[in-house]
Specification:
single chain; about 270 residues; alpha/beta; Rossmann fold; Arc Repressor Mutant, subunit A; 2 domains; six-stranded mixed beta sheet; 9 helices; globular
Amino acid sequence: MAHESRSYRPGGRRESPFYSAFTPSIEGVGYPERGEVRAVRILVVEDEPMLRDGIVDLLTGAGHEVEAVADGMSAVEKGRAESFDLVLLDLMLPRLGGIEVCRRLRTARPGLPILMLTARGAEDDKVAGLRAGADDYVTKPFGVRELLARIDALARRVAAAPAEPEVIEEDGCRFDLGRCVATRNGESIHLTAREVGVLRWLYRHRNRGVTRAELLEQVWGTLGTLQTRTVDMTIAKLRQKIERDPSNPRIIVTVTGVGYAWSEASD
C-alpha cells in the first residue's frame, strides 16, 4: 500500500523475491563483524516492493535500524517528525517526486544526509538531485558493496557533526522528540508525528516568530490544500497536552501579526 510504513530492527534476513533473484551477489558482500558496524537509523523511500524489501534486508543484515515508506508524502511526514541518521531516497515516487521530497527534507532537517537512487546514465536526474540537496547518489542497478560503502561514508559524517537535540526541556516539560513523548510531573504524554513536527520547527527557529503558512509548508508539506486554521487547531490541542495553563501558554506563544513562536522568541 502506498501509505504503508514499516520498522525493521537489525538482525537476520527475511525471505523475499529480491533474494531469489540477487542472492549470489548479496551473499558475497561479507558483512562486517557486529562490533565493526557503524549502525545508523535509516529511512528507506522506495515504491517498488521487491527492491524495497531487498534494501531493507541488506541494511538490517548490516546492523542498521530501518524504517521504510513507499511514497513521497509519507517520506516527508516521517522525515520531519522522527529522528533519522540518513535517508535513502528513490527519485521516482508516487504522491510526491524524489526531488521535491529532497528539497523539503533538506529545508526541514538541514543536517540530514540524503543518498538518492537514480537511473543509470541519467545525468540530468543526478544533477537535479544534488541541486535539491542530496549529499550523494547511487545508480540503479547498484552494487551492494558500493551502497554499504556510501552509507558508511555518510554515517561517518553524521558521527562527526553536532546533532540536533532530540530531548528538550522547557517550562517544566521534557520533550523526547525521537520517541514522540513529552513528560510533565512524571506523566507521559503521547505526541503525534504532526505535533512533533511543529515542536521541531518552532524550536529550531526559536529566535523568531513563525507564520502559519510556514508551518503548513514545512510540517504539513502543503500550502494550497489546507487552511491556516488547521495550524491553529493543532497548536490548541498541543497546548492542552504540554502547557501548565493552556489559556496562558509559556512554551508555544502567540506572536500577534505573525503566528507562533517557541517561548524564547518572546523574551
